[in-house]
From TrEMBL:
Superkingdom of origin organism: Bacteria
Name of protein: Protein ApaG
Cross-referenced PROSITE patterns: APAG
UniProt cross-references to InterPro entries, sorted A to Z: ApaG_domain, ApaG_sf, Uncharacterised_ApaG
Gene3D superfamilies xref list: ApaG domain
Name of the coding gene: apaG
Organism of derivation: Shewanella youngdeokensis
Residues annotated as domain ApaG: 2-126
One of the Pfam families matching this protein, by short name: DUF525
Length: 126
């Protein structure tokens, strides 16, 4: 099978930030580290992001914007770009998912899906 110009893999790790959270005030802080790997045959630029964040009560919020952490990185074939960010939930459990809008060198745009990942305070039975 031929390699596509538009083949991007997204991997995520998460961490509960207990020392920055305040459960008594319904504030649970989580950090996440994203690794975006370009498996395609040409460089791509991450242009924007779109997140859907859902807490355990069913509350949702959407986050959209240019780039990530103030950058619009160019990711060369077989290379990766990694960044860390964070979010606050009102519950000790939630899910994030979304996509990155990417662009090839010739201007073709495509979405790279961010698979759903869990944010959870350690020790939860859910």
């Amino acid at each position: 099978m031929a390699r596509s110009a538009k083949s991007v893999q997204v991997a995520v790790t998460t961490e509960y930030l207990e020392n920055q959270s305040s459960p008594a005030e319904d504030q649970y802080l989580f950090s996440y580290t994203i690794t975006i790997t370009n498996l395609g045959i040409e460089a791509v630029t991450l242009k924007s992001r779109h997140w859907c964040i859902t807490d355990a009560d069913g509350g949702t919020s959407e986050v959209q914007g240019a780039g990530v952490v103030g950058e619009t990185p160019l990711i060369k074939p077989n290379d990766s770009y990694q960044y860390s960010s964070g979010t606050v939930l009102k519950t000790p459990l939630g899910v994030m998912q979304g996509h990155y809008a990417m662009q090839t060198n010739d201007g073709e745009e495509f979405n790279a899906p961010i698979p759903a990942f869990r944010l959870a305070v350690p020790g939860l039975l859910h």
